[in-house]
Amino acid sequence: MDADELTQSVWDISKDEFPDGSPLGEQAKFLLHYAILAPSSHNSQPWRFAVRDEAIEISYDETRWLEVADQDKRELFISIGCALENLCIAAEHFNIGYEITYRADEDDDLVSTVTLERDSEPSSNRPPELFDELTERYTSHQLFEDQALPREARERFRRVIETDDVTLYLIDDPEQKRSIGELQADADEAQMADPAYRKELGYWVGTGALGSSWLMARIGQAVVSHFDLGDREGRKNSKLIERAPVIALLATHADTPTARVKTGQVFERLALLASAEDIAVHPMSQVLERPETRTELAARTGTGEEIPQHLFRLGHVEEERTHTPRWPLEAVSSTEQ
Ligand SMILES: Cc1cc2nc3c(=O)[nH]c(=O)nc-3n(C[C@H](O)[C@H](O)[C@H](O)COP(=O)(O)O)c2cc1C
């Protein structure tokens, strides 16, 4: 994938361009414009889509796997789950039914097949307003305000999850947050002390995928690749965690690729709902990237038999919404006969 191809123009997609009356295969391609707006770790966008008649196959692209930070492909599958969720929300908006087959546990790069069905009733109870947030959602990196998350918002978060496969923990106890912040600092220090981790992060900063201008991206790459900033990152990130009104954790019983895809779907649904409610969202993955801190996180948050999959801050912040770029749809999709 060529960094030069990354573009902001993907965010300008308009629902008025939906090819009404066209064959389902054409409509499937249109839905993919929304799938590629999904969040992904380091904005690596590790997805590939193939439209075959009325089915969409979603695979992962190993060249965009963060093989140092994400050794067990947890973030890769979560990211693809986010794209799958966007696809489902867009399909429902245009009254296209679908059936999802999860294939991530099989031994190749195919993650899921989505078979479309015309003019069907929406098959889920996702709130319709999530659709408009597909082009609005963004990740916030700021310190959140000292303002609690309303009880009603927490209830809506719980209600929007319609699966038993993934559990949502909302943590607001100051002592627990401090303890997670401590783990974050440990994880940051360990990751940043690893030259291979810094090189990988530097590469992604250098592509501009994380949203800076070309020059800033190059400077950022040089700094990240050559200096161990673990101590500074650790202090900054643990403060972000301690001061957030809520730390959310998604956990699953199974620790399989499919469980991670489903975690991604749930996360994206929550992120879109948060966007609709002007609540900022910020995933923080370092604790989960190291087996020892991941196990310790489970102990400190009391997930019991469940395994932590995705950790993110929720809160309020005054800032302008900004979008990171994406590879255009043509670069990540194909139509197969
Ligand atoms: C699985 C996953 C893990 C992520 N981990 C982090 C993280 O550790 N730190 C961070 O700042 N952002 C993290 N993000 C957010 C991505 O950096 C962000 O989604 C990506 O840059 C695209 O930007 P956008 O969400 O604003 O569209 C993560 C996102 C996903 C889906």
Can you give a write-up of this model?
With 337 residues, the chain is α+β, with helices and mostly antiparallel strands. The protein folds into two domains: 150 residues, 3-Layer(aba) Sandwich (NADH Oxidase); 131 residues, NADH Oxidase, CATH 3.40.109. The strands form two sheets. The protein has a five-stranded mixed β-sheet. Strands 5-6-8-7 form a four-stranded antiparallel β-sheet, with helices on both faces. A hairpin with a 2-residue loop joins strand 1 and strand 2. Helix 2 packs across helix 9, helix 5 runs antiparallel to helix 11 and helix 6 runs antiparallel to helix 7. The structure holds flavin mononucleotide. Flavin mononucleotide binds next to helix 2. The site of flavin mononucleotide has 18 residues, from helix 2. InterPro entries: Nitroreductase-like (IPR000415), Nitroreductase/BluB (IPR050627). This is Acg family FMN-binding oxidoreductase.
List the helices and strands and how they pair.
Layout (H helix, E strand, L loop, with lengths): L23 H12 L11 E6 L2 E6 L13 H20 L3 E6 L7 E8 L12 H4 L17 H10 L5 E6 L2 H19 L2 H13 L6 H13 L3 H14 L2 E7 L4 H20 L3 E4 L2 H4 L1 H11 L5 E9 L13 H4 E4 L1
Parallel strand pairs: 1-9
Antiparallel strand pairs: 1-2, 2-4, 3-4, 5-6, 6-8, 7-8
Helix pairs in contact: 1-2, 2-9, 4-9, 5-8, 5-11, 6-7
Flavin mononucleotide (FMN) binds next to helix 2.
The name CATH uses for the topology of the largest domain is NADH Oxidase
Mean pLDDT: 94
Estimate the strand proportion.
Answer: 15-25%
| Physical arrangement of strands within the biggest beta sheet | 3-4-2-1-9
Tertiary shape: globular
**How many strands, what sense, and barrel or not for the largest sheet?**
5 strands, mixed
Q: What is Rg?
A: 19 Å
Q: How many structurally independent domains?
A: 2
User: What bound compounds does this protein have?
Assistant: flavin mononucleotide
What is the assigned CATH homologous superfamily of the largest domain?
Answer: putative nitroreductase (tm1586), domain 2
Low-pLDDT sequence parts? none
Kindly state the percentage of residues in helix.
40-55%
N- and C-termini, Cα separation: 24 Å
Oligomer: single chain
**Number of continuous helical runs:** 12
> Based on the structure given, which CATH architecture of the largest domain is correct?
3-Layer(aba) Sandwich
Secondary-structure-derived class = alpha+beta
The CATH class of the largest domain, by name, is Alpha Beta
Number of strands: 9
Instruction: State the order of secondary-structure elements, H for helix, E for strand.
Output: HEEHEEHHEHHHHEHEHHEHE
Protein name: Acg family FMN-binding oxidoreductase
InterPro entries: Nitroreductase-like, Nitroreductase/BluB
